[in-house]
């Protein structure tokens, strides 16, 4: 139903061109052919366009690139500050290729050559309309889910706790906002005691929730409100987490005894073996991320040692050395590699996959040799994953990738037995991305070459310089020359010469045109030069060829 409503809804399109004839013609074209999809507006000046844009908030802008006082690119940048999700199609001329190409690399959606016909222009706009429709559907689903959150306070609260535990809350403003979403938040000086647990085997989400609730109630039952003000509970990284608000400074010893009883009951009633780690001392809300990581090290020690006991927290340095084998030097190495992610992002934005794979391999070599429970390795994997997801979304290639490789693993490092498997998966994913890029780039270049050849064959009698062809195609002549020779293995100039002289041969053999007339039809203004080239190519003059019926 929602999709049908979205399809029936009209979007808004703004046409901007300083030439009134073009602007009006475009408006008329879009109203006639796409009036069922778009409500169309137009104007002739960028400043006026900004006023209309701010008032109408169109979904799509079709704009000229070169305009007086303000370019279309500058105007688009201002529009995106008002409405970041606006789509922009540029109208460009042949001499604007470099400018438009740069704009597309930055923030434009596409460009349309002014020399292209109505069918091409309409196809590009229809493509944008379909993209807008999908985006609107996504946003409607997103807004719907956000509205549901209002009525799902427990879920929202758990999300807030996860953000605190993973350290993503860094600013005071964000922290205060999250605290406002939690029930009964402690003042800044209040103490929090952390308890985490894990199971040997995986259980259902429902059972996880029951265990969280059961342990919470047992803690409340064991202590009165004077010792515990409130208990927050959440599942985080496959571990059970309870955050105890308390004003008591020395409560860990009493908690230890209580958790021993809880562990026995869980084993008896549920036949589950559960490990627990208890914080040695209380911390503030802003310190929970560090404290959780300390306890997590301890928990990994239990996992590796097949230990089912209840333990108190050791110092982080000891725990890291004993259970994870990570040192200050390891931390330094991983931090340096994390910084290299920024370099990778820049390289990927330029779609330089060769350099990307080289730099990436340095990171993957360290990742695949990491300990299974390394927190640094986990952070590194997520950094790589987030960067790749950003590129996939930006290039809109998720569907193409999904047909070639499973994408769910990208968001779930736990799906791999070792970091070596995770590294190999990243390598494979990037290779598939590279292949898709090469196919797209190659297809684009092949299409350009076919257009060049078609134009040459239909204009052999006219001037056919690189400059002229560049003007018609809307591309830089140097770029066209490079692309053409790469795939045709012949220069544009030599290709033109070959087609002209072959046409000359056909006309000499099959027509009664005089030699100078044949030369003119083939694009040679000087008949003597035509005769010279003809003889160099065929070893005989045009006159001899006609006489001998070669």
Secondary-structure topology with pairs:
Blueprint: H1 2-8, E1 11-16, H2 20-34, E2 38-43, H3 46-56, E3 60-64, H4 72-82, E4 87-92, H5 97-106, E5 110-113, H6 118-150, H7 153-165, H8 172-181, E6 191-199, H9 205-222, E7 230-236, E8 239-246, H10 252-270, E9 274-278, H11 288-304, E10 310-312, H12 316-324, H13 328-349, H14 353-368, H15 375-395, H16 398-402, H17 419-458, H18 466-473, H19 477-488, H20 492-510, H21 515-521, H22 527-538, H23 542-548
Helix pairs in contact: 1-6, 3-4, 7-8, 9-10, 11-12, 13-14, 13-15, 14-17, 15-17, 17-19, 18-19, 21-22
Describe this structure in words.
- The chain is an alpha/beta fold.
- The protein folds into 4 domains: 148 residues, Rossmann fold; 164 residues, Alpha-Beta Plaits, CATH 3.30.70.270; 113 residues, no CATH class; 90 residues, Homeodomain-like (Arc Repressor Mutant, subunit A), CATH 1.10.10.60.
- The protein has 23 helices and 10 strands.
- Strands 2-1-3-4-5 form a 5-stranded parallel β-sheet, with helices on both faces. It has a 5-stranded mixed β-sheet with strand order 7-8-6-9-10, sandwiched between helices.
- α7 runs antiparallel to α8, α9 crosses α10 and α15 runs parallel beside α17.
- The protein is elongated.
- The protein starts with a helix and ends with a helix.
- The N terminus is likely disordered.
């Amino acid at each position: 139903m929602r999709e049908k409503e979205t399809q029936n809804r009209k979007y808004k399109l703004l046409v901007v061109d300083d030439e009134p004839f073009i602007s009006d013609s475009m408006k008329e074209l879009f109203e006639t052919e796409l009036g069922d999809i778009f409500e169309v507006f137009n104007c002739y000046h960028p400043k006026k366009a900004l006023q209309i844009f701010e008032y109408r908030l169109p979904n799509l802008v079709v704009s000229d690139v070169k305009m007086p006082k303000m370019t279309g690119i500058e105007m688009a940048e201002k529009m995106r500050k008002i409405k970041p999700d606006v789509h922009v199609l540029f109208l460009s001329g042949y001499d604007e290729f470099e400018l438009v190409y740069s704009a597309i690399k930055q923030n434009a959606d596409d460009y349309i050559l002014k020399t292209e016909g109505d069918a091409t222009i309409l196809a590009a706009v229809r493509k944008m309309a379909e993209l807008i429709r999908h985006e609107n559907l996504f946003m409607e689903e997103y807004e719907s889910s956000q509205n549901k959150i209002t009525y799902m306070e427990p879920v929202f609260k758990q999300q807030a706790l996860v953000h605190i535990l993973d350290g993503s809350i860094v600013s005071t403003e964000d922290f205060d906002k999250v605290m406002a979403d939690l029930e009964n938040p402690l003042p800044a000086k209040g103490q929090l005691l952390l308890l985490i647990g894990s199971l040997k085997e995986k259980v259902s989400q429902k059972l996880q929730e029951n265990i969280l609730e059961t342990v919470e109630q047992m803690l409340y039952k064991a202590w009165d409100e004077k010792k515990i003000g409130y208990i927050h509970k959440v599942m985080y990284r496959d571990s059970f987490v309870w955050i105890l608000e308390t004003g008591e400074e020395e409560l860990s010893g009493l908690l230890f005894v209580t958790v021993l009883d809880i562990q026995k009951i869980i084993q008896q009633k549920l036949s589950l073996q559960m490990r627990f780690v208890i914080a040695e001392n209380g911390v503030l809300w802003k310190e929970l991320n560090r404290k959780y990581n300390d306890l997590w090290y301890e928990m990994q020690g239990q996992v590796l040692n097949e230990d089912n006991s209840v333990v108190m927290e050791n110092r982080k340095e000891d725990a890291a050395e004993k259970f994870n084998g990570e040192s200050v030097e390891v931390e330094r190495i991983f931090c340096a590699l994390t910084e290299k992610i920024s370099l990778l992002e820049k390289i990927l934005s330029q779609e330089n996959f060769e350099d990307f794979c080289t730099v990436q391999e340095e990171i993957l070599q360290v990742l695949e040799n990491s300990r299974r429970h390394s927190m640094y390795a986990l952070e590194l994997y997520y950094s790589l994953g987030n960067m790749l997801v950003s590129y996939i979304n930006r290039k809109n290639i998720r569907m193409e990738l999904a047909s070639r490789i499973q994408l769910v693993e990208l968001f779930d490092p736990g799906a791999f037995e070792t970091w070596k498997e995770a590294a190999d998966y990243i390598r494979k994913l990037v290779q598939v991305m590279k292949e898709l890029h090469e196919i797209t780039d190659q297809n684009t270049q092949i299409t350009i070459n076919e257009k060049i050849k078609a134009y040459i064959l239909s204009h052999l009698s006219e001037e056919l310089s690189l400059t002229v062809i560049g003007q018609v195609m809307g591309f830089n002549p140097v770029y066209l020359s490079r692309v053409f020779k790469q795939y045709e293995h012949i220069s544009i100039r030599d290709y033109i010469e070959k087609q002209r002289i072959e046409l000359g041969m056909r006309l000499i053999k099959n027509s009664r045109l005089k030699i100078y007339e044949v030369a003119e039809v083939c694009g040679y203004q000087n008949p003597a030069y035509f005769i010279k080239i003809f003889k160099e190519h065929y070893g005989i003059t045009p006159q001899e060829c006609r006489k001998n019926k070669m």
